[in-house]
Amino acid sequence: ITVCIKKVNAEQYQSILSTTALPFLQAQDIKNTVFLHDKASSHTAKSTQAFFEKEKIKFDVLPSNSPDLNI
Q1: How far apart, in whole angstroms, are the C-alpha atoms of residue 20 and residue 46?
Q2: Dihedrals φ, ψ of 59, to 5°?
């Protein structure tokens, strides 16, 4: 788990994915992971979208004003 106290930019988000989330998923042999993105600038940045494409990671974008799915 990575706790972020301040706003995370695209570069920081990609670094967190590279150093924490992706190694964990690979170690657990978890396949078909889909990341849920909201409209946060770190999620919508072109560099983040390119990162996901390069790493062959699936993601879906939640619609604006959607209910919280983290129940």
Answers
A1: 21
A2: -145, 155
pTM for the whole thing? 0.78
pLDDT tens string 6-65 = 899 999 999 999 999 999 988 988 878 899 888 899 999 999 999 999 999 999 988 776
Give 2-10 contacts, CB < 8 A, sequence gap 24+: 7/42, 8/40, 8/42, 9/41, 9/42, 9/45, 10/41, 10/42, 10/45, 10/47, 10/48
